[in-house]
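Data availability (excerpt). The following record was deposited with the supplementary files.
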Amino acid sequence: MFFFALSIIMYLVQNFGNKQYTKHTGESSTGVSLAQNAICTFSAAVILACFGKAKLMPPPIMLLALIFGALYLTTVFLVVKAFSLGSMGGTTLLCNTGMFISAIYGIIRFGDEFTLFIGIGVVLMFASILLSMPKDDKNQNSGIIWFTVALGSGFSNGAVALVKREAVAIFSQDSGIFLFWGFLFASAIAFALLILNKRNREDAFQVLGKKTPILYGICAGLGTAGGNLFQMLALDTVSSAIIYPLTAGFLVVSLELVSLLVYKETTLKLKNIFAVICCVSAIIIINI
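Predicted structure:
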């Protein structure tokens, strides 16, 4: 579980960088969000390259990395957009619901172990996510837009996890090589979308001319590289039915607390307390 713990820390760094980016750029236009995507994924690729991960792979795996990059770019784009519309904790909550899709996929596709304890733990973890869902009574339309974008990031995140699970199963070399190409492809797509669209390009230049947003983008890239790499290393020894739900639970609870205590985006409610209890119970039960 050592690699799992490291992945959690790096994912926290990733979300911090993304949130601070939106705080310094305001409500994100498509160009502003794409600029963050490009900075984040390119930084992640550079970091992995510095650790010797820039190596060629067989063509079929390169294609899988391209699919991973496109899906990951979509996920990051939607997360950054949702961060500008709603709370970090609520967005992360909905984004991580996609991990349950991959956990079920691992059980069906790869025959991962699924015990009664894991089943109960997954149900409790999912209950904690439902209980943690924020409600925006002041502006219903804004709340619906945020919910739709954040939920979309969850489906996209689930698809990313499926591709990573397949990559772990069929690619016997260093997982970091796969991630390097995936992030490089993602950054290439983001830069292409910026270059080909004048409005996106103009909005992006407003961000790229400022040092602080770029630094937070790089911070998100560091968390992106570390979180994904360590998670894939953890999948070599621990079932995805354990890794993905635990990752979702830890991130949801910790970032919900950050939203409450640091960013003041949410308020303490009884259902939030029950959400934490369900999450902690799930963690204990899953590890029995």
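Summary of structural features: The chain has twelve helices and no strands.
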